[in-house]
Amino acid sequence: MAVYAIGDVQGCFDELQALLDLIRFDPAHDHLWFAGDLVNRGPKSLETLRFIGNLGSGASSVLGDRDLHLFAMALCQPLDNGAQTLDAILRAPDRDELIDWLRRQPLLHHDATLGFTMVHAGLPPQWDLQQAQTCAHEVESMLRSDRLVEFIAHMYGNKPARWSGELSGWKRLRFIVNCFTRLRFCDAKGRIKLKHKGPPGSQPESLLPWFEIPGRASRDLNIVFGHWSTLGPRDDPGIYPIDSACLWGGQLTALRIDTTPQRFNLSCPQLVAPG
Question: Which domain holds residue 159?
Answer without folding.
Answer: 3-267
